[in-house]
Each structure stands twice: as C-alpha cells, then as structure tokens.
Amino acid sequence: MRLSKLSNVLALASICLGLAACVPLEQQGYATTGSTAQQPIRYEDFVYDASIRSVQCYRGTGGPEAVLEPAVVSLGQEQPILLEFDRLNAGPQRLVAKLVHCNADWTPSGLNDAQFLNDFNEFFITDVQNSINTRVPYVHYRFRVPRVKLSGNYVLQVSEEGGNLLLTRRILVYQNLVAVTAKLGAPTGPEGRAARQPVEFNVFYKDYALVNPSQDVKAVMRQNHRWDNAKVYPRPAFVRDDQRRLEYVFFEAKDHFLGLSEFRSFDSRSIRFKGLGIEQINLEASPVHIKLQPERSRAGLAYSQDPDADGKMLYGNREYGNSVVNADYTWVDFELKTGEEQGEVYLQGGMTEWQLNDETRMRYDHEQQAYKGRLLLKQGYYNYYYALRPAKGQAPDASYFEGSHFATGNTYDILIYYRPPGSRADLLIGYEEILFNNK
After folding, report:
1. Model pTM?
2. pLDDT tens by residue, 264-276
3. Which CATH number goes with the domain that contains 186?
C-alpha cells in the first residue's frame, strides 16, 4: 500500500467547529435488525444480515494501517489474516467461523476439511467487546483466521451458532512455486496512455513443472485488491517452452485497467471539528448527522495528485481513541451536483463493498439539480468514487464522473492458478504485487 501517501492526508489539519450540547443516546426512529431468513452462501465478499457493519479482513502486519493490507498471505503464514466487524443493536452472541476451499473461479473445490486444515473446521469467535458511550450501540468482533496447509482461494464464513449466515470474505493463500515479474506495457490506441495503465507480466517456471500450461494455468489481475472488476486471463498469450516462461501481453484496451483518478476522501474521526471534506456536523441528531461538501464531476479535469488509501478506510475517534469500541456510527450525506439527471448513480468504495444496491444508489433531486445519498458509517477516514450505471445489467463506470489518467497511483496484484494432474483443486502457485506510479 502507498502508506506514505496516506500519511500525508491523515496529517491534514481540521477546521474548528463549536461543540454543541450533548444529546441522549437513544435511537430516534432508527433500528438495525438482522434478517431471520437463512440465505444460501455466496462465494464472495458479502454481508447477509443488516446488523453487520464495518467489516475488515486484512493481513495483520501490525500497526493501525495494517487494515489497509489485502487478505493475502503466503502458505507459511508468518503474518495472520484478521477479520473484524461490528454488529449493531445486539448483545454479544456466540458466532462461528468456517473455511471453504475454492477453485480459481470461486466455486467450492470439493476437498474435505482434512485436506486443507489440521483442525476441526468450526471456530468460535471469542474476541468480543461492547461499544463504549456510543449513540449507536454495537458489539465488536475480532477473529484470527487459522493456518491452512494448502494454497488457493478460501471463503471465510461467519454464522450465528445454529446456522444463520452473517458474512463471507475471500482470502488468498499463495505458495510461490513460480516467479511472476511485471512491467509496464505499451499504450493502446491514440488515447490509451492518457486513460489506461497497461501492465504485462511473465511467469517463470524453471523449478516447477507445469503440464499443459496453455490450458491449465489461469491468471487474475486486480486493481487496488478489488474483486468487482478483476480481469481473468484463462490462458497466456505465448508459451516459451525453451525458456520455461509464460508471457502475458495484451493488445486490446479492454485488457488494461483504467487508471481513473485518486479517490475522493472525507475524514469523520472527529465530531467536534470539521475534518477533510465535511461541511456540517449536527450533534443534536441521534445518530450524529454529517453533511459532506457538495461535489462535481472531475471528468475532463487535469490530473490532481491527492493522497488516498486506494479506496479503503481507517476507523478512528480523535476525541477518545480506541476506535474499536469508541468510534460511533453517524449518518453521512453525499451530494454530487450534475445540472441534470444522468441515470443511475452509485457510491463506490470499500465503504460500500463495491456493490450496487438500493443502499448505495443515489437519488436525483430535481430542485437542487444534484444526486444525493446517505450511508450509516462508523467514524473514520474514507475513500470513494461516484459511478454511473448506463443501464440495468451493465457495469458501473466511475470514469464518467471521476475521469481517468495514466498518472494515477494504483496497486495491482497478479494471481497465478494451476491444477496439477490428478488434483481436485486449483492451487495458487504465484503471487506478485506492484505499485503503479507510486508517489
């Protein structure tokens, strides 16, 4: 992660706001109740119960910025994968975690638990804390994912004791049996260099035998550790048997990611002072109501080198510290002035889990000529985009409002999967992460 870049934005000074009188903690017409109907598991990052909020799954490197790391570890697992989340308006409950081994396409591999775990595949979450002096009460859960003995894709699922599914998270465990090297590719088309970020890579398998690599090796590339727009390459462009090398080069623009722009940001870690991007704080409302500064489209503007966290978030409370249990939940209002209605507009980022749904969709206000949206968010530093979905079933286009630039700083990681002859599962045999335009 570009932690130096993030450190710059977190050091921005806040503007003073007078502190209003304290208000009662009871919820005024607000409730968060979970669904009681059992839902089928989805092998992706997903929340099944409305009471579950602020989910973070990351590699535990130590320090407050570790939450920005992806849920990716080597098979040796020198650093653990950690899962943290809140459950609103509920008392502590016995929750159970379980791992499912999956293939490269995130379908269950069919392996039995003993083939990838040394333990019984049912783990109670015992690190549980109640929130302290928050207007929206919640319980915070923390879980250290157990070690596994096989590389590949894993889905971590958390349920209530008794079976009601609460959330799932994707985890990657790799074993570097091959070497992955990446480089900048050639721009595509007359505007390719201005908007897209071409990345090409090679896979060297000098010390690991690949049988029929043109058919049995699959590659995936992600931008900023996102799954919603990951690119899948079912076969290499060239197989160099004499060099024991697979070559991935791309000749079409669709195979390269748009660079987009640096993420928009706001900082709600204080409710006494207006932080970055905040226009108004209403302390008399319960939950506290935060209104962000109105914004406009950035398409067509020159590139701006603003520090960000690659679309992720850091929770915090400047007044009391210990964000795990002291950071409160607030309503956050977003406003995008467009002049006229454009279509379906969504908020995108780690705060919305990159999903398109009724909660993340903004509504157009004809009188104000602006799109408006509201989210219930834990106090913290957040990154986000505005994205337009042209029509139902189509992918959202963040470049419509954000623009796209070759110079934007992004993180890319490359995943190499292989199914050995006679095996029943895809293994993750190579992993590499690169920083594009690291500032």
Report:
1. 0.90
2. 999 999 999 999 9
3. 2.60.40
